[in-house]
Amino acid sequence: MSAYYDLFESPDVQHTGEPQPLYARFVPKGTMGQEEFIDRVHRFTGISHSLLQGAMKAFTDELRDSLANGWTVEFGELGYFTPSLNSRRVMDKKELRSTSVSLRGLNFRLSKQFFRELNGKISFERRPAQEASSNASRVLSKAECLRLLQEYLQKYPCINRAQYSQLTGRSRKQAIVELNDFILEGVLAKHGMGKTVVYIMG
């Protein structure tokens, strides 16, 4: 698997009207929700969903509280979080009071180790032309969803509901109905229970 990039024209900041140089920009394949992320960690580690969900909640709560108390926080091997601030510009320090300073967001600084590991694993390919017109712009037919599903299961041993939703653009309810249809048709087989359910070729 690889990550997608595409080429985009640089902004014409001088308003020349002439073609501008192209630059590569990361193009996401979608957004992995927290539930799917936890599913993946669970599959690779065997740690229970409830324990992972509790740990994630505890980490984010402690991150929030530590930032609120004025700390820069190192988040595992990932990197460092620091609050960024909003304020009006002044010429004299006495012109600005604390009530005029507010939170703008968070700055994140990636750790060198995580960068090296990610850089060693990631590879890029130009986004295929058919991907450029996103599936979100039209509703895929059930046959098209089946084709995408079969292509996916040729590369990977199984798929879960969240992955099928991401692959096809189906809602959670639509995905469950469609996956159950495929089971009845003999296309898929279902393994596991509850949040550990996965689907394989029937």
TrEMBL record:
Keywords: DNA-binding. It comes from the Bacteria. GO terms for molecular function: DNA binding. InterPro entries: HU-HIG, IHF-like_DNA-bd_dom_sf. Residues 1-126 form the HU domain. The keyword Nucleus does not apply. This is DNA-binding protein. It comes from Bacteroides oleiciplenus.
